[in-house]
Structure formats: C-alpha cells, structure tokens
C-alpha cells in the first residue's frame, strides 16, 4: 500500500484529502463482505400496550395512583375541616394561642403537599421500572424472532412508509411476549421511609 504510506507522510490538508479520497474504496471493499439486508417491521407501541405484561403494568399504575389519590383526598377533607374549626376558634382564643394553632395548621398543609408530590413521584418511579423491564423483554423477544425468520434488520413500523405485510412480525412478538413474559415486576411504591402505598388484593397478585 504505497499510497497509504505516502499519505501518512504528508501533512495538513493534502494528506487528509488523500485519505478522504481513498475512503469510498475502503468502504466498498468492506461492504462486499456484508450480507444483504433482510428486514422485518414491528409495532413496538402495540406490542407494549396489547401484551399481557403491558396491560398489567398499566393496571397496577392506575390502581396505585387511585389508592394514594383516595388517601390524599381524605387528608384534604380533614385539613378543610380543621381550617373551618380554627376559624371558629379565632374569636375566643388569645392571639398567641390562635397564631400557634395557625402555624401548626400551616405545617400540616405543607406536609400534605409534600406527601402528595412524593406519592405521585413514587408511583411514576415504579411505573418506569416496570416499563424498563418490559422494554428489555420486548427487545429479547424481538431479537429471537428476527433470528428465527432470518431478519438482520428490524425497523419500527411507525417509521416505515411502505412494507410488505409479510414483514410485519408484531403479532408474533406479542404472542411470544405473552408466552415468555406474561408479567413484569412492579415495585410497590414507597414514599421515602413511609409504608408502601396500598393497592387492592387483585393488584398485589399481579
């Protein structure tokens, strides 16, 4: 490769230009050893939504959210009742006593708002963890099916304008997911050091 040795000895733009001009030749030589494309397409959104595991994740997500929503609504009602009682006591309490109770009430409101935010974040954290497991299961199943049908390129169907219907392996992926991964772990949401947010018995069995 005399030309390569000369290119390496040359400096500046001339040397770079020689190497750039040789790049298409190197690429052509390398590509000649690669197999031709054999493609299949998959609707990943449909697989994640329609699979048993995907439906289970969404169901648990909704149940946990509803569970902490019910708890927080009850607390909100209690705060409203406390506020109403505090306003009734204002005329009969000394200023110092009423202000002390008002500060205690304000702290309860702050704690309530913080718990509400933390509860929401904890449920979403558990949801993201479950969806990450489902994504890994989807990737594993898709790779298995691609190997079985001889596909070396897998494209998301949303990015394909036109394809032969026989290339669509979404149904096979969903069936394999249901068989191999009928469910994925959904960690019970916890608010820092608090007890886990309860879900109903049915949710806990999934």
Describe the overall structure.
It contains seven helices and two strands; from the N terminus they run ααβαααβαα. With 206 residues, it is mainly alpha-helical. It folds into two domains: 34 residues, no CATH class; 171 residues, no CATH class. It has a two-stranded parallel sheet. It is rod-shaped, with a radius of gyration of 30 Å. The termini are far apart. The N terminus and C terminus are likely disordered.
Residue ranges: pLDDT <50 for 5 or more in a row?
Answer: 1-27, 200-206
Q: What is the CA-CA span between the terminal residues? A: 65 Å
The total count of helices amounts to 7
Q: How are the strands ordered across the major sheet?
A: 1-2
**Tally of structural domains:** 2
Secondary-structure element series: HHEHHHEHH
Let me know the number of strands: 2
What does the radius of gyration come to? 30 Å
| Major sheet | 2 strands, parallel
Tell me the strand percentage band: under 5%
Which range best describes the helical content: under 10%, 10-25%, 25-40%, 40-55%, 55-70% or over 70%?
Answer: 55-70%
Walk me through the topology.
Elements: H1 2-9, H2 12-31, E1 39-42, H3 44-50, H4 52-89, H5 95-149, E2 153-156, H6 170-180, H7 201-205
Parallel strand pairs: 1-2
Helix pairs in contact: 1-2, 3-4, 3-6, 4-5, 5-6
Q: What is this structure, in a nutshell?
A:
With 206 residues, this protein is mainly α. Helix content is 70%, strand content 4%. It has a two-stranded parallel sheet with strand order 1-2.
């Amino acid at each position: 490769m005399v030309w390569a040795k000369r290119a390496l000895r040359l400096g500046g733009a001339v040397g770079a230009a020689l190497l750039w001009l040789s790049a298409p030749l190197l690429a052509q030589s390398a590509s000649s050893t690669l197999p031709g494309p054999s493609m299949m397409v998959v609707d990943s959104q449909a697989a994640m939504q329609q699979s048993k595991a995907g439906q289970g994740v969404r169901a648990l997500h909704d149940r946990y959210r509803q569970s902490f929503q019910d708890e927080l609504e009850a607390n909100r009602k209690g705060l409203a009742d406390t506020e109403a009682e505090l306003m009734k006591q204002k005329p009969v309490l000394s200023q110092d006593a009423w202000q002390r109770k008002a500060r205690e009430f304000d702290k309860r409101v702050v704690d309530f708002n913080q718990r509400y935010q933390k509860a929401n974040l904890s449920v979403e954290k558990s949801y993201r963890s479950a969806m990450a497991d489902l994504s890994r299961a989807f990737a594993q199943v898709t790779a298995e099916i691609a190997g079985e049908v001889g596909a070396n390129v897998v494209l998301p169907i949303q990015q394909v304008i036109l394809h032969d219907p026989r290339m669509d392996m979404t149904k096979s992926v969903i069936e394999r997911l249901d068989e191999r991964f009928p469910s994925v772990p959904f960690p019970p949401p916890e608010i820092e050091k608090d007890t886990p947010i309860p879900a109903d018995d049915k949710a806990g069995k999934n």
